[in-house]
Amino acid sequence: MACMDSAYLQRGRREWRRSGGKILLMGEKTDIKAVIVAPAASGVVLLTGAAEMVADAIFELGMEFGHYMREVDQAGAGITCIAIDADEGPVDATRQRIELALVDLIEQTPELLGWNVRVTVVELPLDDAEPPEGDDLAAEAEPLLPSGDDLVASLMADIHYERSVYDDAKLFRAIPVEDLSTEDLTSLDASQRDAALQRASALAGCLVQASVIAVDHLISDIAELREQGKRGTTASIDETWVLSDLPSQFSDKYTALFAQ
């Protein structure tokens, strides 16, 4: 991926168009949010793994963009591509390329059966009827843009996270990583088997990372329940991270000691 040019505002060609009664600023570089949406509420492990697969599918398109932000929540798992270069072609055509790639991803991945694709162009509506010009445009936009250091830090964090998922897969010891694949590895050719193993490794890494998050959240739950005890209030798990997801009929048993 090419790093964002620090002066692209000054040299970028700007086009104005109206949509839905609002004036939208479209530049030579555009942001596109690409996610896949689960058919039902899903856990952080599944969503994180889905976001990894979306990122891989988009990277394989070979598009040029500044950097990306990971999207992991119930509204969708994937990435937002920041500052896609105008050389990639018209925005709608680029959006459709990404959409088709994610449709193919879902069709080829049994774990994503029933998921839906959502690819949208991120646009910034403006209040003024007339567009700012020249230096005024650059001056108004400058505080809205991340600095070069911020972009590098964000990119390096994403690269580190990307590597950490597969690095953490090596720490997974519960079962062989191959057993996490839903596919019959013996029936696949070499390239298909490598892809299936990569997905299984990503899932293993996500499980390891999710276990760390779960322990951290349980510690927070313990602190919350102890604080409730100090205040003399009836223990409630409504505001806890992990305990609130357990079967509610046993909620009176979910004490700080139980969490420990």
Would you write up a description of this structure?
With 260 residues, the chain is an alpha+beta fold. The strands form 2 sheets. Strands 4-5-3-6 form a 4-stranded antiparallel beta sheet. A 3-stranded antiparallel beta sheet has the order 1-2-7, with no helix packed on it. The radius of gyration is 23 Å and the shape is globular. 44% of the residues lie in helices and 17% in strands. It contains 7 helices and 7 strands; from the N terminus they run H-E-E-E-H-E-E-H-E-E-H-H-H-H. It folds into 2 domains: 8-126, Alpha-Beta Plaits (2-Layer Sandwich), CATH 3.30.70; 160-260, no CATH class.
Key terms:
7 helices, Alpha-Beta Plaits, 2 domains, alpha+beta, 4-stranded antiparallel sheet, 260 residues, 3-stranded antiparallel sheet, globular
